[in-house]
Amino acid sequence: LRDQTFDDSTKWEGSTKTIVENILKYAGINRFIVQHNNSTTPFEFNPSDAILNGLEKIKEYHTTLDDVWNIAELSDGTIVIGYESWLNEYLPKGYYTFDEGRDVFLRKTRKSADGAYTSLRVTGKDINNIELTPVIIEIKNYRYWSLGAHRTKHLTAPDGKTQEELQAWAEAQAKKYKYVGITEEFSGPFRPQLIVGDVA
């Protein structure tokens, strides 16, 4: 999906489920399961856009404060696409606890304020291409970091949203930027049962 592009097939219409299924078929993917969705928002991509990036654009459009629209691949190669709460039926999240000194050999902590912001400003247009009122949301950070009052992350929401949908989309994006900047790395024994998305 990352290596293929849309070429001349740039406009896609129908329900979200139909659009996603047709894009996967266009990419030569035959094994997939897509969650039903009532949305009929059309999507348009550039000929040079990677198909995976197009699916990511659809994902961004449908992600809400309550649930994240996501893409996953099962162990047999089947692609599953839908909300996290629905994906849990196919790839349930695992929760694991590790003890330092016994389960963890090496632990490194890195701190960097490069990706930290104090506020988020989101702009967007409605279905009639009219600019919506920008949404500004405060982002919480570690209290001992001095970031400046106007360290703002600017984002543009996918077109076609209402003002209420823009607000919800902005709140969902703001969650990604809360308390960022501290990364921990752990080294331990190989555990094949761990998969992407598990919580350790």
Q: What's the layout of helices and strands?
A:
Blueprint: E1 11-12, H1 16-26, E2 32-34, E3 43-44, H2 51-62, E4 69-73, E5 79-83, H3 84-87, E6 106-111, E7 119-123, E8 135-138, E9 152-156, H4 163-176, E10 182-187
Parallel strand pairs: 2-5, 7-9
Antiparallel strand pairs: 1-3, 4-5, 6-10, 7-8
Question: What is this entry, summarized?
Answer:
By secondary structure, the chain is an alpha/beta fold. The chain has helices at residues 16-26, 51-62, 84-87, 163-176; strands at 11-12, 32-34, 43-44, 69-73, 79-83, 106-111, 119-123, 135-138, 152-156, 182-187.
Task: Please explain how this structure is put together.
With 200 residues, this protein is α/β, with parallel strands linked by helices. It is built from four helices and ten strands; from the N terminus they run βαββαββαββββαβ. The protein has helices spanning 16-26, 51-62, 84-87, 163-176; strands spanning 11-12, 32-34, 43-44, 69-73, 79-83, 106-111, 119-123, 135-138, 152-156, 182-187. The strands form four sheets. Strands 2-5-4 form a three-stranded mixed β-sheet. The protein has a three-stranded mixed β-sheet with strand order 8-7-9, with helices on one face. A two-stranded antiparallel ribbon has the order 1-3. The longest helix has 14 residues, at 163-176. The mean pLDDT is 88.
Quote the beta fraction.
15-25%
State the major sheet.
3 strands, mixed
- Radius of gyration, taken over Cα atoms and rounded to an integer in Å: 20 Å
- Identify the strand order in the major beta sheet: 2-5-4
Helical segment count: 4
Distance between the termini: 29 Å
- In total, how many beta strands? 10
Classify the secondary structure makeup into a structural class.
alpha/beta
- What form results from the Cα inertia axes? globular
Mean pLDDT: 88
Low-confidence stretches: none
Q: Fraction of residues in helices? A: 10-25%
Following the backbone from N to C, one meets helices and strands in this order, namely EHEEHEEHEEEEHE
